[in-house]
Amino acid sequence: MTDAAAPPVVAVRGLTKSFDGRKVVDDVALTVAEGEIAGFLGPNGSGKTTCIRMICGLLTPDAGEGEVLGLDVRRDQRQIRRQVGYMTQRFSFYEDLTIEENLVFVAGLYGLPRQAVADTLADLGLTSRKRQLAASLSGGWKQRLALAACIMHKPRLLLLDEPTAGVDPKARRQFWDEIHARAAEGMTVLVSTHYMDEAERCHRINYIAYGRLVASGTTQEVIDNAGLVTLLVEAERPGVLATHLRKAPGVEQVEPFGTALHVTGTDRAALMAALAAENVEGRPAETSLEDVFIRLMDQSKDNMR
Ligand SMILES: Nc1ncnc2c1ncn2[C@@H]1O[C@H](COP(=O)(O)OP(=O)(O)OP(=O)(O)O)[C@@H](O)[C@H]1O
After folding, report:
1. Which of 15, 19, 54, 206 best tests ligand 1's pocket when mutated (most atoms within 8 Å of CB)?
2. What residues does ligand 1 touch, defined as CB less than 6 Å away?
3. What is the pLDDT of residue 302?
4. Which CATH entry fits the domain spanning 229-286: 1.10.10.10, 2.60.40.420, 3.30.70.100, 3.40.50.150?
5. Which of 59, 88, 124, 304 stands the most exposed, by the fewest C-beta atoms within 10 Å?
6. Ligand 1 atom 12: the closest Cα is on which residue?
7. 3-state DSSP call for residue 10?
8. Keyword Nucleotide-binding, does the record have it (predicted)?
């Protein structure tokens, strides 16, 4: 990350948006420092895309305020749009154009010189494929083209909405290496994802459930703040044991990992009692980010009732 004293690139608060009378984003505050990779996580339909669109100036918030790149999130939407890069969830380029033709088209929209296309092709390792039709590209290369198109104008803020959905692990890794390289040069990134390993690659994460931001911090802070205890239990018949443990008081989650179970709750004594009642022993294990997210989601659901 770059200069910690620099003003945040995103500093919004109270962001709220309703569609058809239903509040889908409710009082969300978000701060993203310069050069930071901020993760945006949460169940389907929890409002991540809607937040991203308000931040990049595509949607006007019903309420809330703040700055994006020093510009007013309500008043300066046009300028914000020109200065950010936004990669949408769906591949949205011309399949019957080549990689190069797609980039030439985008360069035209931004008024960029032809050299910008050549530089971007080279930067992203696309030069040797520049004459390939977009339709014939694999998921990983399509997503690389999409990234090229949204960073060609050198935005200081990049918003990525589930950029690696359906992409194989190697291409995902290469994509993240690319993102980290950009962040090291000072680009700020806000990225939504459903993948736990990607959440762990972010400098900070923000978890949103049912429109409300319910946790923020580094991965470790979010795990520590959840106050969960996890015990690992080896079992001969993990399926049967899991069924029993799920009914025991104090046991919140039971997840099989091969022949072992991860048993999670907030009360260590209650977990130990539940295991003792089944004549099994547990040893301390690390609580995973996924365990924490599932708890946050369940808690948010309960609060909605
Ligand atoms: N333009 C719109 N008109 C009406 N409803 C909308 C509109 N955009 C989003 N919604 C609704 O708002 C809710 C939040 O959607 P949003 O796409 O922001 O969630 P998300 O967290 O990005 O979900 P996912 O992880 O599935 O992409 C959903 O119920 C969605 O159907």
Report:
1. 19
2. 19-20, 24, 42, 44-50
3. 64
4. 3.30.70.100
5. 304
6. 24
7. strand
8. yes
